[in-house]
């Protein structure tokens, strides 16, 4: 995926200006920078939710998978049902349950509505849903936010294990997360900073 001369404005506010970047196929890229520097805007441009005001984006695969900053789950549905909404009703329930268990969710919780889940449990359902969808590129916008240290390690190991050889773009504020996930680092700054 290649971005050339990308500028994005919201009204009078310029969020991205003349951004050039290349994300290699089959590689993990970690995007870091202060809040408000345009990291999420960059992902939304790559996902096709926003259009750049200037510049071009090429090479973005059609099949995309994402973990957003919000969990975006159907609260009355179970964890398994939330994932089947994306994979299809005929998706292998045993495989889904196995992935959720790999993320530390207990068997007893898998048949409860996600509205009864803690924030960290919902986060892990969102991660499993994105990984199981198996997009050609996986966009992760602060996917481990709100997880305690042990659960965060478990979730990072899970993502690394199931995305070997895949294109992964991870937004994080945490240098340890970036080191653990590996790959190239894109450090973004606030407009006007070097």
From TrEMBL:
Any one GO molecular function term: ATP hydrolysis activity
Pfam families the UniProt entry points to: ABC_tran
Keyword rRNA-binding attributed: no
Name this protein carries in UniProt: ABC transporter ATP-binding protein
Top-level taxon: Bacteria
Keywords: ATP-binding, Nucleotide-binding, Transport
Entry-linked SMART domains: AAA (SM00382)
Domain ABC transporter span(s) in chain numbering: 1-194
Membrane-traversing stretches: none
PANTHER family: SPERMIDINE/PUTRESCINE IMPORT ATP-BINDING PROTEIN POTA (PTHR42781), SPERMIDINE_PUTRESCINE IMPORT ATP-BINDING PROTEIN POTA (PTHR42781:SF4)
């Amino acid at each position: 995926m290649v971005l050339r001369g990308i500028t994005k404005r919201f009204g009078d506010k310029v969020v991205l200006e003349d951004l050039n970047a290349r994300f290699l196929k089959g590689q993990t890229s970690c995007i870091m920078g202060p809040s408000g520097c345009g990291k999420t805007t960059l992902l939304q441009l790559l996902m096709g939710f926003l259009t750049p005001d200037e510049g071009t984006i090429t090479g973005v695969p059609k099949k995309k998978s994402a973990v957003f900053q919000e969990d975006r789950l159907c609260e009355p549905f179970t964890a398994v049902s939330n994932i089947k909404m994306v994979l299809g009703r005929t998706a292998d329930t045993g495989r889904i349950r196995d992935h959720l268990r790999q993320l530390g969710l207990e068997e007893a919780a898998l048949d409860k509505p996600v509205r009864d889940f803690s924030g960290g449990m919902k986060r892990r359902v969102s991660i499993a849903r994105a990984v199981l969808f198996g997009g050609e590129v996986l966009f992760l916008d602060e996917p481990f936010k709100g997880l305690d240290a042990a659960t965060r390690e478990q979730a990072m190991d899970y993502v690394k294990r199931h995305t070997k050889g895949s294109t992964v773009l991870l937004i994080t504020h945490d240098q340890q997360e970036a080191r653990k996930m590996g790959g190239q680092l894109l450090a973004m700054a606030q407009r006007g900073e070097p």
